[in-house]
Every structure is written in structure tokens, then in C-alpha cells.
Write a structure and sequence with these properties.
- Residues 280-294 have a biased composition (Basic and acidic residues).
- This is ABC transporter ATP-binding protein.
- Residues 17-263 form the ABC transporter domain.
- There is one protein chain.
- The chain is α/β, with parallel strands linked by helices.
- It has a domain at 15-91 and 182-263: Rossmann fold, CATH 3.40.50.300.
- Helix content is 42%, strand content 21%.
- The protein has eleven helices and ten strands.
- Strands 6-7-8-3-9-10 form a six-stranded mixed sheet, sandwiched between helices.
- Helix 3 packs across helix 5, helix 3 (107-115) runs parallel beside helix 6 (166-178) and helix 5 (131-150) crosses helix 6 (166-178).
- Bound molecules: adenosine-5'-triphosphate (ATP).
- The site of adenosine-5'-triphosphate has 11 residues, from strand 2 and helix 1.
Length: 294
Amino acid sequence: MTTDTTTSQAPARDTVLDATGVTMRFGGLTAVSDVDLTVGGGEIVGLIGPNGAGKTTFFNCLTGLYIPTEGTVSYRGKVLPHRSHLVTQAGIARTFQNIRLFPNMTVLENVLVGRHTRTKEGLVAALLRGPRFKKAERESEDRAMELLEFTGLAAKRDHIARNLPYGEQRKLEIARALASDPGLLLLDEPTAGMNPQETRATQDLVFAIRDQGTAVLVIEHDMRFIFNLCDRVAVLVQGRKLVEGTPAVVQGDERVIAAYLGTPFEGEPGEEELAEVEAAEAHSTARTEGDDTA
Ligand SMILES: Nc1ncnc2c1ncn2[C@@H]1O[C@H](COP(=O)(O)OP(=O)(O)OP(=O)(O)O)[C@@H](O)[C@H]1O
């Protein structure tokens, strides 16, 4: 059983993801232990915890990369098969902690690869390149371009992926994942290695993805990002779910502070800091005015 569910919220009525009792053992090591998690339509849910807590392993159980030792994972009420391409087809897409683009393909080609689960044209049609195939190809390209516009990469459509700056490679991974038209997007450390502006842009992009109707489950170590972004946050520690709740509940939970957050999260500046800034500004204005009159 999970250690605490008192702070968790009731599952949303239109549950997109429902993971129940997910356990993953590697030999003698239990990486994930009896974890329940739901994601509702229109929700952004965060998954946080110390290094080695089992977050990525849990993602791998959700996406069919691993067959959980125990437990089930359902998407929109249907138990998912343990095959990653079937999970993608069902409606779950993901990005990886380490960027996994096709480095020598163009930006557009990378997105088109992500589109193939949604195209019905078979090998024969592709070889014959008949009108039906060409129409499907055009539609795929239109959709890929829409996604490049959406992620701000349209101007780079013909650039080779490996030549993009790091932040744009991460965006491209998201565009490629969105190409399968997922109902749920899983993001594994989307802001790792980003500067503050790139992190802010990623936050806006995730909100926009949610606003377009895709629910999001995100692993991240950047707590400011997580607490600004998420409707709900679950904390994994040593493979178990320790706490789940709103950002405010999780930030204030003594056990989370002890096991992971350490000192309380510093979000917006406090009253004292604001007063200091105002005093400094007043001081510098007074000096400037003094200079002007001198
Ligand atoms: N394929 C595997 N075989 C054996 N052990 C594994 C495997 N994958 C993960 N583990 C172990 O499972 C535990 C959980 O690892 P996992 O990568 O899921 O943690 P995490 O919370 O994602 O960590 P981080 O924040 O550092 O990415 C670790 O002890 C890890 O060494």
C-alpha cells in the first residue's frame, strides 16, 4: 500500500490514466512499489522525488517499455498492452530524459516520424506512391508544420536536428511526441539543462498543450517549474508514493521536506525581500534626484 493517501484528491471524473498497484522489481531490487496514480482530462500532474526514487521506471511501466511485475495501467478505461508502439497508438506519448531525436534528420522529418502511428497507408501504397498515399503524405506534413508552428520551430523545419541548440532539441522532442495526437503526454525532465528563459518557455508550452486538450504527466527536479505548473503532485521516495496533493499541500508536507525538498521551497519573493527591494529602489531614486539637482 502507499504510505499516505490522506492528501490525495479523488480521481477526476474523466480519468485518462489509471495506474493501479504498479510494482517493478529488478532481481532483488524493488524500483517501484505498489504505486497508484491517476491523471484526469485537462490535468497537469507532477511526479517528483529524489534520484533513484523510481520515477523513470514508473514511466517505463506506463509506456510499455517495462512489463510491471504487478499492477495494471489503463488508458481511458482500457488496460494497456505491454508494447510501446501499441501504447502510443492508444494515445500516450512521451519524451525521454536523454534526448532521443534522429540527429541526422531534419526537424520536419523528425516530426513526421512521430506521425507514422496515425497514418494508415501501408507499405504497398508507399511504394506505389499513388494519389491516396500522396494525399496522406500532404496531410501528415501539414500537421507536422502545425506542430512546428505551435512549438516555435517552424522557421527551422529544414535544419538538421543535431545542429539545433539544446533547448530547441527538447522542444522538437515534444513536437514529435505530439505528432501522434496523444490524449496524455509524459515528459521526463523536460527542462534538464535549460536556462531560466528556456524553462519559462517550456512552462508556457506545457500550459498550451494542456489547453489544447492533452493531459500531461511530468517528471522534473526543478521545483519552481513543478509547483508553478502542476494541478497535482505525487512524491515518490524509494519506489513508494509518499504523498500526493496540490502543490501547496506537497510543499508544506514535513515528510516531503525531510525526504526530498530540504529547506522550504522558495517561490515568489517574500514580504521581507520585497521590502528590501523597495527600500533599495527608493534609495537609488532619491540619489538620482539628488544628482539631478546638483
Ligand atoms: N533496467 C534496470 N535494471 C536494474 N535496475 C534498474 C533498472 N532501471 C532502474 N533501475 C534501478 O531502479 C531504481 C530507480 O531508478 P529510476 O531511474 O527509475 O529512478 P528516478 O527516480 O527516475 O531517478 P532520477 O531522478 O535520477 O532519474 C534505481 O535504483 C535504479 O538503479
